[in-house]
């Protein structure tokens, strides 16, 4: 029973992954096509041929293995992209370049057809069933050598004759930054940027100073409280001379008041440098009593 459930879950996950990939495949686009290649891209064999560039316009990796490329409307399954090549996994925003050289023995990315520059050239991409059309384009006849026909920007709907050929690269270069351009337009001298940078720096330092100052005060106050508590416990544990707040206890004031009273009433010994010996009167001598006791004859 457990194995059966695991098998069903695995099958469900597999179908789900297939469904997700199938959905992503529909986001693949034929992005740029070069019909006449005289001085442009050179393949691994040192040859120049026409090429087709595909673009992944989705947010996920798309595996185009098993899909079909064709230049014949009546034959959607003319060239089947190999499933065994890891390079058929196209990452988001990336490109795949196929060479139209009619030499499939040279690898996955070498097609089994080529272009005819004297007439229109049709290019289409089908899914792995060979029945669902993903994208298609017809390149006009009379293409100029080394000038490609492609989308104005990657994945866009508008096609044009591109003045800059870009195999496996973006069709439109981003040569400017809107924010930087606006800043340069509104602050050509850079004074505002300098003032802003200095203000941010000083504000940051000021906030750090205030934070560390407060932390220091809290630490000192905590140290003082701990020292007072330790002193109260160590020095005067029995007599409790100090209270927990660090103030003297009432016993100290009572002792001081008693001493002042004795001074005022003259009850202390004024002759602090004289030793007085008084004779003690006794009716008998302790030594005599002992002697008497020693002289007695022991009783039998």
The largest pleated sheet is described as: 5 strands, antiparallel
**Any low-confidence stretches, pLDDT <50, length ≥5?**
12-20
The count of DSSP E runs of length 2 or more, i.e. the number of strands, is 11
* Fraction of residues in β-strands: 15-25%
- Tell the overall outline: elongated
Query: What is the first-to-last residue Cα distance?
Result: 114 Å
Q: Order of strands across the biggest sheet?
A: 7-2-1-10-11
- What is the level 1 CATH name of the largest domain? Mainly Beta
| Mean pLDDT across all amino acids | 80
- Tally of separate helices: 5
Helical content (DSSP H or I, runs of 4+): 25-40%
What's the CATH architecture of the largest domain?
A: Sandwich
CATH topology of the largest domain: Immunoglobulin-like
Structural class based on helices, strands and sheet pairing: alpha+beta
CATH superfamily of the largest domain: Lamin Tail domain
The domain count comes to 2
Order of helices and strands: HEEEEEEEEEEEHHHH
Describe this structure as you would to a colleague:
The chain has 300 residues and is α+β, with helices and mostly antiparallel strands. The protein folds into two domains: 2-175, Immunoglobulin-like; 192-288, no CATH class. 34% of the residues lie in helices and 16% in strands. A hairpin with a 6-residue loop joins strand 8 and strand 9. The longest helix is centred in the C-terminal third of the chain and has 44 residues, at 191-234. The chain is elongated and about 155 Å long.
